[in-house]
Fold this sequence. Notes:
This protein is an alpha+beta fold. About 55% of the residues lie in helices and about 20% in strands. The chain has 2 domains: about 1-60 and about 70-145, no CATH class; about 150-225, Alpha-Beta Plaits, CATH 3.30.70.
Amino acid sequence: MNDYVEIAFRLLVALGFGGLVGLERSYHGRPAGFRTHTLVCLGSALLMLVTVYESQWFASRGMERVSVDPTRMAQGIMTGIGFLGAGVIMKEGINVRGLTTSASIWVTAAIGILVGIGFYFPAGLATALVLGVLSAFRWLENLVIPSQQYAHFLVKFRRESAMSETELRKLVDGLSFSIANLNYRLVDDGKHFEYRMILRTPDPDNVRRLAEVLVSRPAVLEFRISPTGD
C-alpha cells in the first residue's frame, strides 16, 4: 500500500510542477500552455514509474534475472517530446516563433522524469529555475538587451490612387521602421493594389503610431499589422 501512496504522490507532484510552467506559458498567450505542459510532465512521470516500480507489474520466474534500464525509457521520452515541441515552432517570413515554448515543453518532460523516479529536489529546483528563465529573464532581456520588434504589414489601395513605393518607404522610415521582403501585387481583378512586407523597429510603440497614421489617410482601404513574438 505504501508503494501506491508514493506513486500517487509522485504523479500529483508532476501535475503541480508541470502546471506551474504551463501557467506561465498560458499567461503569455502561447498555444501550448497550462494543460499541455501539465500533461507532458504527468505523462513523463507516469512512464518512468513503469521502470521504477517494475516489480509491481512484472514478476520474474524461477531463477531468471531481468533488469530494466530506466535511462532507456528516459531517452525514449525525450525523443518523443521532440516531435511535440517541433509542432509548436512556426516560421513567419524571416522570423521563427515557438522556440521558447518548445524548449519549455522539453524541459517539462525532463522534470516529469525526475519526479517519476523520486528525485524531488532537482525536480523542484528545475521548476523554479524554469519559471525564473521564462519570467525574470524576459524582464532582464527587455531591460538590458536591445531588441527589434518585427511585424507583418499589409496595406491596400485603389489601383488609381495607390501610394508609390517611394512615399510608402518615406512614411515608414519617418516612424523609425526598416523594411524587409517588400512585395506588391494587384488583387480583386486588378481593382486594388497591395503592399506586403516585414517591418522592423526598435520601439514596439511605433506599431501603434503607424496604425494611427494609416487610419487618418483616406486613400488606405485596408491595412493589417501583425507583430511577431517568440
